Amino acid sequence: MSVELSPMILAIFLPLFGAIAAFIAPRAAWSIGLATLAATTGAVIWLARDVWAKGAVMLPLGGWGAPLGIDLRADGLSVAMLALTSAVGFLVSIAALDSLKDAARQRQYFWPLWLLLLTGMNGVYLSTDLFNLYVMIEVIALAAVGLTVLNGTRDALRAGLEYMYASILGALLFLMGVGFVYLHLGRLDFAGLAGAEVSGSLIAAMALMFVGLALKIALFPLHFWLPAAHANATAPASALLSGLVVKAALYIVLRLAQYMPFPSETLLTLVGLMGAGAVIWGGIQALRAERLKLLVAWSTVAQIGLIFVAFARAGEMGLTESWKAAALLILAHGVAKAAMFLAAGRIKDEIGHDVIRDLDRAPIRPTLAQFTFALAAISLIGLPPSLGFIGKWSLMEGAMAAGYWHWVAVTMAGTLLSVAYFSRVLTAFLRFDRVRAPVGEHQGWALADAAPLTLALAAIGLGLMAAPLLSFIEIGYPFGVAQ
Amino acid sequence: MTDPLVIFDVALALAIVALAVAALSVRDLFAMIVLFVVFGLLSALAWVRLSAPDVALAEAAIGAGVTGALLLKTLHHLRYVSGTLGQQAAYGVTPLTPVPIGVTLANAIFCGLITLGLAVAYLGAPAAGPGFDALVAEAMPRSGVDHPVTGVLLNFRAYDTLMEVVVLLAAVVAVWQIERGVSDAPAPVLGEVWQGFARLALPATVVVGTYLLWVGAEAPGGAFQGGAVLAAVGLLLLLTRAYVPQPTHRGIARGAFVLGTGVFALVALLVASGGRVAFEYPLEHAKTLILLIEGMVTISIAVTLAALFHGREPVAQTKGGRDDT
């Protein structure tokens, strides 16, 4: 009797078993963690080949089939998110080996929490069931809060507590929405949503779900918890939180928009306006931030806003294309922001602080980390040929085609703001005449820079592969078409 | 003719709302916790009236029982670190800086919008939706158990339940990793009545918890409810200091935390052979496997909840004596 494995099952169960093993054997946690990440990446590649060859694949867990049971389903978008998660996760894990090497306790607990987080995120990307999504975001929430407070500082604990309140409130709102949807439709699977009749009360239920998710995504004006949480966490945790965790809830919004009877144009414009508010407010706060990590965290708020602008860019009619712009921006931000947070952490480690005003006064110049930061900034600002550029370009193209010039204006304003706030950091890197280091210019290179640099290069280079990437994420994704 | 139970229901609903308001507005933290526990018990009663005895059991055991104990423990700790442990005065927490009016206003608007959304969603919702009832009834003979709720939780939607157990695991890992600089508050002095109570209550609790687990296959009950009741045994042991967590016990505790998740996930994976997929238990073994999973999950839930009550990874005792762990 041989056990039959499916790559979808592996993508969820490998990290789960890895987390268990890493928790039981704390001394070997790091090697278990890396091995698990490698194996999970392998499973995702296997799944990608399946999806490439056969289109979307399904697996009815327990053999029951939806709506009674729960189905797992993978299409192009799921696989893209899984690939983002395992690739970024793998590189962040390598970076974590170095940045946690002096903190025995953090090193011990980082791995089980991170692997549980991975379980939850992979579960979200393969889920086709509303209640299952709720359970998965709860797994993500607790593991993410654990990672936020990993370094045990007072600020991190305070921010982590706030994050937990926001996260649990968001999950509860989502759950209440799910409850009402179940009352209406009598089922929880996505397919049941597709044929639903739109009524005021069903829209109210979906609005509750959306507000819950918006709290978890930190969409303006529900972003209050994010800057402190992401800025005070330890660097690899920040990279995971900003690069990957918020993407899980973003993905749910994108996915549900595919199946849900769509709300009116007004609601979509409202979503776009919240995004626009985030772009402007996040940009202004990033300009005012005194610390490097806080600046990077505020830029996450702004970039998330941009993703929602992309979603609303061409109104209801353009939604069949708009989600692709949003998906590209999600992928671009995931890679670039992880690189940027790791680089910021490296700079802080080398210089000993991350006060932006004093960055150019340090005798040490962690050049490679600074280079990484600049590359990531290029992708986040959206200069060609980065993936961020492709995302922004398709956003503006769609908005222009639909004649929605206000979204173009918002995107432009956001881009200018991001140039402005990243320049604050980049100029501090360039002006090296203040203090001369006694021992040459090239201090602060380390093997630890390899992982963030790889991520930053990927953020730039993936832009060149945008066309195959786009055709891949379209596999099995019939927007607005009932399954 | 009015059903007398309608009057009871209305009174129950009003009492629950009134308790919620009272719990939110009272300043004394101890009174707040007591009100919250009563609120939980009445909510459990409401679940009974809604014909959801499984939820009622869980609400009473976890919502009122374990949560109440956690809150009381936290209050005890707060009083210890603020130096008001021996005082009889009410202990309330006032924020250091007054909340700005803008924040209050923003919160009020947010809550208002949410309430509006809930109201619209509720008023337009069908009184009795289609639901899973028919599907569950049809599939029950193939589930291996007789109680529909257990069938849904441990078979049809076992994947969700596995992940719920993972949530609990994530919670205890997160709690253990927080290194708290301050030492624990000394345990409260327990009177003679208490010792007698513990002697009577401990064996009874074990029996009730195990019964809840066992009966789950055909009647309301199951792993979560049984685990919560068994966790009470752990709480009593910790409170009476009959058991003091030691650093050397960490390995066993870790094993107990992951036992439920590990066995559940392994069973789910290993049944996937001969054309079956994951979570598809062969019918002839379904009841045995479900009982095995539930038993292991119950142990994990009980140990995890007790560990959450203890609230930290066991550390080496300081020299200060027994009361200063």
From TrEMBL, chain A:
Single GO molecular function: NADH dehydrogenase (ubiquinone) activity
GO cellular component term of the entry, any: plasma membrane
Record carries keyword Transmembrane helix: yes
One Gene Ontology term from the biological process aspect of the record: ATP synthesis coupled electron transport
UniProt subcellular location: Cell membrane; Membrane
Residue ranges crossing the lipid bilayer per the database entry: 6-25, 32-49, 77-97, 109-127, 133-151, 163-183, 203-226, 233-254, 266-287, 294-314, 326-347, 368-387, 407-430, 450-473
Mode of membrane association: Multi-pass membrane protein
Signal peptide segment: none
PANTHER family per record: NA(+)_H(+) ANTIPORTER SUBUNIT D1, NADH DEHYDROGENASE
Record's protein name: Formate hydrogenlyase subunit 3/multisubunit Na+/H+ antiporter MnhD subunit
Pfam families: Proton_antipo_M
InterPro entries hit by this protein: CPA3_Na-H_Antiporter_D, NADH_UbQ_OxRdtase, ND/Mrp_TM
Record's function text: NDH-1 shuttles electrons from NADH, via FMN and iron-sulfur (Fe-S) centers, to quinones in the respiratory chain. The immediate electron acceptor for the enzyme in this species is believed to be ubiquinone. Couples the redox reaction to proton translocation (for every two electrons transferred, four hydrogen ions are translocated across the cytoplasmic membrane), and thus conserves the redox energy in a proton gradient.
Assigned protein family: Belongs to the CPA3 antiporters (TC 2.A.63) subunit D family.
Domain NADH:quinone oxidoreductase/Mrp antiporter transmembrane per the UniProt entry, residue ranges: 127-417
Taxonomic superkingdom: Bacteria
From TrEMBL, chain B:
Domain named MrpA C-terminal/MbhD: residues: 15-79
Superkingdom of origin organism: Bacteria
Organism, scientific name: Roseinatronobacter thiooxidans
InterPro entries, alphabetized: CPA3_antiporter_subunitB, MnhB, MrpA_C/MbhD
Protein name per the record: Putative MnhB-related membrane protein
Cellular component terms per the entry's GO annotation: plasma membrane
This protein's record includes keyword Iron: no
Annotated compartments: Cell membrane
Domain Na+/H+ antiporter MnhB subunit-related protein intervals: 197-297
Keywords: Cell membrane, Membrane, Transmembrane, Transmembrane helix
Pfam families in alphabetical order: MbhD, MnhB
Family the UniProt entry places it in: Belongs to the CPA3 antiporters (TC 2.A.63) subunit B family.
Membrane topology reported for the UniProt record: Multi-pass membrane protein
Segments crossing the lipid bilayer: 6-24, 29-49, 55-72, 105-125, 156-176, 197-217, 223-244, 256-277, 289-309
